[in-house]
Write a structure and sequence with these properties.
Pathway: Carbohydrate degradation; glycolysis; D-glyceraldehyde 3-phosphate and glycerone phosphate from D-glucose: step 2/4. Its EC number is 5.3.1.9. With 187 residues, the protein is mainly beta. The protein has helices spanning 36-46, 159-164, and strands at 7-8, 15-16, 20-25, 50-57, 64-71, 75-76, 79-80, 95-101, 104-110, 115-120, 125-128, 132-138, 144-151, 168-173, 176-181. It is globular, with a radius of gyration of 16 Å. It starts with 6 loop residues before the first strand and ends in a 6-residue tail after the last strand. It binds 6-phosphogluconic acid and nickel (II) ion. Residues 54, 69, 83-86, 95, 134, 136, 148, 150, 154, 156 line the site of 6-phosphogluconic acid. 6-phosphogluconic acid (6PG) binds next to β12 and β13.
């Protein structure tokens, strides 16, 4: 394993050299939005838009890896485009999110049910403590691009958030991003 400089484009999220990537489209995120009828309509009329893309740089045998998440702007009935949201499988492993461009909200929830919000603006490096669920939400009108750095063993636990939702949602109210209680949250 040798050291290497990796070029990250803070406007497009491109990682050179990258070692893997995936894309999430709106139809794959149906369960996490409030208004699924409107989501189905958007998928139909807009041809299933991309919501976010994740590109990683990972070296076999390393303890750390990093990459970018690039989120498109968009809304479903006023609810901003967001990631699935997850806890890490390893409860002792946190993460770092360093925003490069765009404007977002990082919604965090502890196992005890505390909610925290960290604004994602260019230059803000967010500390995600171990065992806090995290979801990023693009509240701007441009791409939201952030760099994440994580332990390779952290893993993802999507089950909890998928089943119960998060306690808060982020919606556009009169042109302003607003944090509200999730009416569909189930404990
Ligand atoms: C991770 C990071 C990050 C995240 C993406 C997509 O643990 O790998 O938090 O890369 O996975 O931003 O978010 P979801 O994994 O919640 O869809
Ligand atoms: Ni994570």
């Amino acid at each position: 394993m040798l050291p290497e400089g990796v070029l990250i484009n803070g406007l497009t999220g491109e990682v050179s050299p990258g070692t893997g990537k995936y894309t999430k489209r709106l139809s794959e995120l149906r369960e996490i939005f409030q208004d699924q009828t409107e989501l189905d309509r958007l998928v139909e009329v807009e041809g299933d838009p991309v919501v976010y893309e994740v590109i990683e740089y990972r070296k076999e045998g390393s303890d750390l890896f990093f990459g970018t998440t690039t989120m498109e702007p968009g809304k479903v009935s006023g609810e901003f485009f967001m990631t699935r949201g997850h806890f890490h499988q390893r409860r002792d492993m946190g993460e770092v999110y360093y925003t490069q461009s765009g404007h977002g909200v990082l919604l965090l929830e502890s196992r005890k049910g505390e909610t925290k919000v960290v604004r994602m603006d260019p230059g803000v490096c967010a500390f995600i403590p171990p065992d806090w669920a995290h979801r990023s939400i693009n509240v701007g009108s441009e791409k939201l691009v952030f760099v994440w750095v994580c332990n390779v063993d952290a893993g993802h636990d999507y089950g909890d958030i998928l089943k119960h939702g998060m306690r808060k949602i982020v919606v556009d109210r009169d042109g302003k991003d607003t944090i509200m209680n999730n009416p569909h949250y189930s404990s």
